[in-house]
Amino acid sequence: MEHDRVTLKIPRPLYKKLQVVIQGSGFRSVNEFVVYVLRDLIALQPGDSDKDLSKGEIEAIKQRLKNLGYF
Fold first, then answer.
1. Helix 12-22 vs helix 30-43: angle between axes, to the nearest 10 degrees?
2. pLDDT by residue (tens digit) across 2-42?
């Protein structure tokens, strides 16, 4: 069965940075990496797991994502 998909537009400079980030990482494409990161981010939402992260841990993750150009 075919998966429903949509197009998500991101700035080209960010896309180019992500191409560099994923080199040698095992990700086959920027799209694959972005889907992985977004799923991971959603999984970190408070109350969605038995072991919630502290506010400090969430802020540290947000800062790392910001450094990668996500925020």
1. 90
2. 678 889 899 999 999 999 999 998 999 999 999 999 888 88
**pTM exceeding the 0.70 threshold for the entire prediction:** no
DSSP string for residues in 39-60? HHHHHTSTTSSSSPPPHHHHHH
Residue type, 52: D
CA 61, CA 16: separation in Å to the nearest integer?
22
Q: Determine the 3-state secondary structure of 68 from DSSP.
A: coil
